[in-house]
Amino acid sequence: MLLSAGQARAATNVYPAGGSTFTGGAQGWEATEASCNVPALCTASGGYDGSNGNPPGSIAANTNIGLNLATLFKSTVTLQSPDFTVAGAGDATLHLDRQFVSGSLLDLAPQATYGVTLIDRTAGTKSEVLTEAMPAASEFIGKDHAATVKAGHTYALSIRTETSSTVAGTALLGGTTSLRFDNVSVSVQTAGAGDGGGGSGNGSGSGGSLTDQQLRSLIGDSLIGPAILRGNRIAVKARCPARVGVACRITLRGMLSRKKAATSSRKAKVAKGKTKKFVLRIKPKGLKKVARSKRLLFKETVRAGKAKATVYKRLKLVRKQG
Questions:
Q1: Engineering a disulfide at 156: which of 31, 103, 119, 279 sits with its beta carbon 3.0 to 4.6 angstroms away?
Q2: Which CATH number fits domain 11-203: 2.60.120.200, 3.40.1190.10, 1.20.1250.20, 2.60.120.260?
């Protein structure tokens, strides 16, 4: 009985301020550095992008190249979160969705890397949590990594990006590359419910106190590709993250666009930490377009306790017979 009571008091606090979803604004994030090695023909910048995200709204590191560039370029942008104070110690997980878009500079073979650093304001130290090279991608892809925090300490997240070309410019190409981030958060599973750490919000182990923003952050990578196309049906796997704390009620549908459905919808209850296959029937009017597509957009709506969140993700389509 005592063990059960201790588990019931477990809580998930999400920082900063319940997770940075960038819905409607930068939510306190700012660019603290932006530079390029060819200043006259290359401009680096960082800031809010209201059009792109999962859902729309993200923070972006942009590199703009002028038409007369005839050499290699390298730009650096650093994006930093507002400060947040951790309410309780426990297992911490960094989550973010990221996307790298080459734009019209594909012939320059641009490449991008980023590193996430946890700045401990209280201790006056910094620790690198994650570094990654990013391939060009048409959709936002989720990433999780373990982190270490201390109760009562004040932190900030810093994302340092580098974008560079591997093929010299021809003076005929110009355009913009973007490395974008969405749903950036540090989730801390604590042994006891806290006050939310400076407005972070918290969710109980039962999932009953999860906010919509927290749930959206947790399910950013819950769809597992590729999607399998057989005739007029598409099979897709969806996962209920264990960190949600309860079973997920998932509704899934394939989309031609965010407002136009390509398939029927399917609903199912999925236990926490488990994965379920959804089989969707393609609508007759969308069959030809889906058959020609290499990827398909999916709309996933998840309910967990009182929380509800919707995310969109584009998955590769693999065709199989039978």
A1: 119
A2: 2.60.120.200
Tokens, residue 102: 């080459």
| Cβ-based neighbours of 275, under 8 Å, separated by 6 or more | 224, 237, 238, 239, 240
pLDDT value for 128 = 94
pLDDT at res. 1 = 35
Instruction: Note the pLDDT tens digit of each residue in 286-295.
Output: 999 999 999 9
Domain with CATH 2.60.120.200 in the chain: 11-203
For the chain, give every residue range classified as CATH 2.60.40.2060. 217-319
pTM (predicted TM-score): 0.62
C-alpha dihedral over 24, 27, 28, 31, to 10 degrees? Answer: -60
d(CA 295, CA 138): 10
Rounded Cα distance, 106 and 317, in Å? 23
Mean pLDDT of 51-65: 91
User: What pLDDT does residue 41 have?
Assistant: 81
Two structure tokens written together for 177 = 């590359």
